[in-house]
Amino acid sequence: MKPVLVTGGAGYIGSHTVQELIKDGALVVVLDNLSTGHLDAVHARHFYEGDIADTALVEHIIKEHGIKSVIHFAAKSLVGESLAKPELYFYENTVKSFMFFEAAVKAGVKHIVFSSTAAVYGIPPDIPIREETMLAPINPYGDSKRMIEKYLEWMGKVHSINWVALRYFNAAGASLDGSLGEDHRPETHLIPLVLQTALGLREKLAVFGTDYKTADGTCIRDYVHVIDLANAHILALHALEHGLQSGIFNVGTGKGYSVREIIAKSQALTGYKIAVEYGERRAGDPPVLAADSAAIKGILGWEPGYSDLETILSSAWHWHSTHPKGYRL
Ligand code: UDP
Predict the structure, then answer these.
(1) CA neighbor of 169 nearest in space, from 254, 71, 296, 78
(2) Taking the model in full, what pTM does it have?
(3) Cross-strand pairs, 277
């Protein structure tokens, strides 16, 4: 069993990736400071509560377990918060990732899969978005990740490590066995908010803007199931271990759904009426995001298996209806 270090393995995408890595036969070591993650979400053999910027701890973990491969998720990921506190995002995401990678490579890491984001594109000129599209983030969150991609480019060249950055579109859904799901505090993401409203945990859902230039006036996003995202990381890791050249890949389905479509499908699936309040646009929201994922399909052989809206919403519904308080249940 090859050991893999997963930072942020107690978070939403990290915990699902850990679960899929274990199914794939890896020996998983998680490093998470539990600032936003949940201990109950960690299914790994080894867990270290600590910070990615604790370079002595990082070096110790890597040497102790003979780790050559790392999947780096640990980060702050709220666009709104990043607009209010840019310094926090550049410090927590960018500066700490620089420190983490430096320590990891010094201790012997050779392969890195990095959790990037479609937010690096800002408001893209063309849809679907290709990896070559000019990067123009419109919030500090996206920019904090873009800088890490740049750092990896140099790091890879200078230190002979190979790496992959995965630019995800909208992660959604929950594990099919019902043991893992989305539990952000505060919750800002559309699908959990819609389903919590259906459950009566929230009075109503605020729709952020109805005057976008889209068919129904609301924003369109490319929702990709968290298990499909997890598998993208595993494919990337295997390919890196077999000599794949460093690169950047979008991860999305290419198909977008509007906010109104998500609400309508959720009502149909749950059988509950979802009270909605139509409001102003939210700052920093591009009207349409949808991925061109030809590269990851062609080079890594990735195919989404769970990202149809039915599976996304039904797995998320199962999670939220059985965990109305998230991991506090
Ligand atoms: N959205 C909304 N109401 C909410 C939360 C989100 O209308 O309470 C919209 C948001 O404007 C965006 C889409 O839902 O168009 C997806 O937002 P989310 O925060 O889930 O993901 P993002 O695309 O910002 O990463």
Answers:
(1) 254
(2) 0.97
(3) 206
